[in-house]
Amino acid sequence: MTILILFACIALLIILISYARLHTFISFLLVSILAGFLLGLPTEKIAPAIEKGIGDILGGLLILITFGAMFGKVVAESGAAQRIAEVMMKLFGEKNMQWAMVCIGFVIGIPLFYGIGFVLMVPLIFTVVYRYKLPAVYIGLPMLAALSVTHGFLPPHPSPAALVVQFGADMGLTLAYGFTLAIPAIVLAGPVFSKYLKKMPSEPLATFTAKSIPSEALPGTFNSFFTALLPVLLLLLVTGASMLWGDQAQFATVLSFIGAPSVVLLIAFGYALVTLGLLRKTDMATLMQYCVEALKDVTPILLIIAGSGALKEILTATSVDQEIADKLQGLPLDPLILGWLMAALIRACVGSATVAGLTTASMVIPLMEQAGTNPNLMVLAIGAGSLAFSHVNDAGFWMFKEYFNLTVKNTFLSWSIMESLVAIIGLIGVLIINYFLI
């Protein structure tokens, strides 16, 4: 009955948004309230759960999205993104631009959380798209596939890192297996799949593009690349310093502060204002106007993400994820397949890869011990499953839809299928490795 209610609520949400043309945020609130009632959440707890869900998801994403948007706008308007696009086009050529995006997405995705990588790379994607008149989804999806794979498969991202600890897995082996799986997953779900999406209509947000600037008036190549990649460099620096000197309490506290994603973006934004703005004779009033324009464009995205957080919290508060996991435990399946399936269904229900991975972990540990399952491969099986079936209760779904200005239908046909392909290819890879290790 719980599953039927869940699917009915998701169907209603799609109907309200796509056919009734109700604003997505309002649709989320109405469906969240209905889901709370139907799933048996006490009436007095529905409103607090909705408020908590909105607060939790915006607490983690508000600074990232707003400062990421302002940072991206400055990079675009200054001409730095144009310079980067020109250099990339010379290096890779238009025919290989997808592979350039894949490489950048994979390198960026290893140290960065998915949300940060997304908002930092979107300006680069859109600059390439507008400057060379290339299909937006065709160019952008491969990079986002790379970001998604690193988020689900590879430590130090939250879910795989936590699973390594819980299962007593070997971090080095998990990373080695993860890299082995990541390559085919990214290639097939990214460049190969996106070839079928060349004609998908998409008008990306214009805020991250700027009018063409003569080449001689653009920022220098080093300044453009260094500023655009500064958030990544800072995080890599902090990670390396933590490994070397993290045992010193006072130093560890400073690193923890500097390495916080919001602080990293604040530092990068300030640096961009100076090097791409003030030092190039752009006054502060103009720079702040760029920021205002960027914020106007991302405000609707924040509302939609807030709505998805409300629905996610209702589903979590009613223990839908635990109920599904309990029912799946008795299935006569290989533990690796069962772990993947549990994570996939929980992801579909609550919309969070991290929640899906961590919820599944406690359920499969007894099964692993009984069957002698390889813990490194279980980390990857659950990580792959936690990426499956991304849809309307996932903030990533709405970020992709709104940034790329797609219909709900086309977001399903591009984003949701890409995420599910990554999950399925990951499971196949895990089973192949397990076959040769037995």
UniProtKB/TrEMBL annotation:
The keyword Nucleus does not apply. Belongs to the GntP permease family. Signal peptide: none annotated. Keywords: Cell membrane, Membrane, Transmembrane, Transmembrane helix, Transport. It comes from the Bacteria. It comes from Sphingobacterium bambusae. The chain crosses the membrane at residues 30-50, 57-76, 96-129, 136-154, 174-193, 225-245, 251-279, 300-320, 340-365, 377-400, 412-437. NCBIfam families: gntP. Pfam families: GntP_permease. InterPro entries: Glcn_transporter. The keyword Transport applies. This is Gluconate:H+ symporter.
